[in-house]
Recover the amino acids of this structure.
């Protein structure tokens, strides 16, 4: 069976699983001119998507879906579409089991369904985009082969095509990625997927008005490898980001003792190209649905092979401690939190998302409540989610930052939403009981906060002393 015609521009693609990865992938590929069918077994989700509702807070995604409406369909079945697809993208959930192992039942079910509709009369590529442990692609191939009822697998190929989408900027990451990774067993599959991503690889599309091409952006790298290596690349990328954050938080802890300013340390070390500026922001640490799950999976993979991963283990442990550090800072500043009112600025695990999975805010709130504090919170997007998902969490929800501050002894900036970077501090201070501000994201300017009478507590921000001729500010090269 021959591969795709290199001149082919438009592919028939089925995306199985319509979570934020599946839906973003489907919407972007449809926008780029491919004909997409999104398949999901959740009828409510599919009906909502047919009405143009994404069901998730992902900037630009709804607009992209409207632009690409003629190229994308949604269904709970999709048998015929699977039979006619050139490429099937598997993007179902891979949640964690309590011991950190990855739950692959959705992958297995999807592979079974897809396999039954691999007709054998055309070359089809099944690309696994879900994050799966090294070696899963081979299992998927076997499942597809069994379900298709064929002994060989000459008419289809399995590939690993991991995603590197950040919640909150998933559309941007899909259209302007740093790299596209394709793990295959045969060249024809790599050629098919490279042709599918050609518009992104060559940047031959007119950017949507709401997601312009970033200034200075060139072309993404294309990495092809074997399947297991591609699977490992995904885990290693997240593990490295986690390690970077863990490292800078460890240094921030030391800066708290020595009086050095970690934001200047991070800026200065990040100017070394070997280190880089990103993911060096100290604070209460990472949350979200990916880092916790993927690090647990990697540590589990390590223990399966009796291969210790002490660096990663340490980074995860540092992150667990950072959340408690916020509470310790409050205890210290307020001389105990029992009976105090604490206001949380933000609940989401990061800005531009309504996602509360593994959000530091939840741990901080639980800890404070268990210590006898009263907890209030304000988040511009995710308060209703929090009310619905955690009805037992005794948080009092405020309507805005002023009503949040009312009667508070301290505030904790948990999520660096844009609106929190220019807070009406004077008005907030006026309605507070005591004025302590723990900046869990090192997002505020200490002198600005202190000017309004607050005790400012960042993470490793030193004494806050300024000196003239600060080389970091005045002599930065691009
Ligand atoms: C992460 C990766 O960045 C994506 O590349 C990957 O595709 C995705 O996981 C996934 O596996 O699906 P995401 O979880 O959406 O994306 O969020 P990030 O932007 O990476 O942030 C994760 C957490 O790290 C947030 O809580 C953020 O506040 C925290 N963070 C980030 C820091 O504490 N310090 C930093 O310097 C940077």
């Amino acid at each position: 069976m021959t591969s795709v015609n290199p001149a082919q521009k438009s592919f028939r693609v089925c995306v199985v699983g319509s979570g934020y990865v599946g839906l973003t992938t489907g919407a972007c590929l449809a926008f780029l001119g491919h004909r997409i069918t999104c398949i999901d077994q959740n009828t409510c989700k599919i009906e909502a998507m047919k009405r143009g509702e994404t069901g998730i807070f992902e900037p630009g995604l709804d607009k992209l879906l409207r632009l690409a409406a003629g190229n994308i369909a949604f269904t709970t079945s999709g048998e015929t579409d699977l039979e006619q697809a050139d490429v099937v993208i598997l993007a179902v959930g891979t949640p964690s089991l309590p011991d950190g192992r990855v739950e692959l039942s959705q992958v297995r079910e999807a592979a079974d369904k897809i396999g039954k509709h691999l007709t054998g009369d055309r070359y089809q590529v099944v690309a696994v985009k879900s994050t799966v442990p090294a070696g899963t692609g081979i299992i998927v191939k076997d499942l597809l082969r069994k379900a298709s009822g064929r002994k060989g697998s000459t008419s289809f190929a399995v590939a690993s095509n991991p995603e590197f989408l950040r919640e909150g900027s998933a559309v941007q990451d899909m259209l302007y990625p740093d790299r596209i990774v394709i793990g295959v067993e045969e060249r024809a599959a790599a050629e098919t997927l490279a042709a599918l991503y050609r518009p992104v690889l060559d940047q031959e599309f007119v950017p949507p008005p709401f997601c312009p091409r970033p200034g200075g952006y060139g072309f993404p790298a294309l990495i092809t490898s074997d399947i297991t290596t591609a699977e490992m690349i995904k885990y290693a990328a997240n593990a490295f980001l986690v390690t970077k954050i863990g490292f800078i938080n460890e240094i921030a802890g030391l800066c708290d003792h020595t009086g050095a300013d970690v934001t200047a340390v991070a800026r200065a070390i990040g100017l070394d190209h070997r280190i880089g500026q990103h993911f060096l922001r100290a604070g209460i640490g990472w949350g979200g649905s990916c880092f916790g799950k993927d690090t647990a999976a990697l540590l589990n993979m390590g223990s399966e092979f009796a291969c210790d991963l002490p660096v990663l283990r340490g980074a995860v442990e540092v992150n667990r401690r950072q959340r408690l550090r916020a509470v310790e800072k409050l205890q210290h500043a307020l001389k105990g939190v029992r009976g105090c009112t604490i206001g949380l600025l933000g609940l989401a695990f990061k800005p531009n998302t309504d996602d509360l999975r593994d959000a530091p805010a939840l741990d901080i709130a639980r800890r404070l409540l268990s210590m006898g504090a009263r907890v209030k919170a304000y988040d511009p997007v995710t308060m209703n989610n929090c009310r619905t998902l955690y009805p037992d969490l005794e948080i009092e929800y405020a309507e805005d930052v002023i009503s949040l501050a009312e009667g508070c002894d301290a505030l904790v900036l948990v999520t660096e939403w844009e609106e929190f970077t220019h807070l009406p501090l004077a008005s907030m201070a006026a309605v507070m009981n005591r004025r302590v501000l723990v900046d869990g994201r090192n997002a505020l300017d200490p002198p600005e906060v202190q000017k309004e009478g607050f005790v400012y507590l960042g993470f490793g921000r030193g004494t806050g002393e300024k000196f003239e001729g600060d080389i970091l500010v005045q002599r930065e090269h691009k």
Remarks:
- Residues 134 and 232 are 6 Å apart (CA to CA).
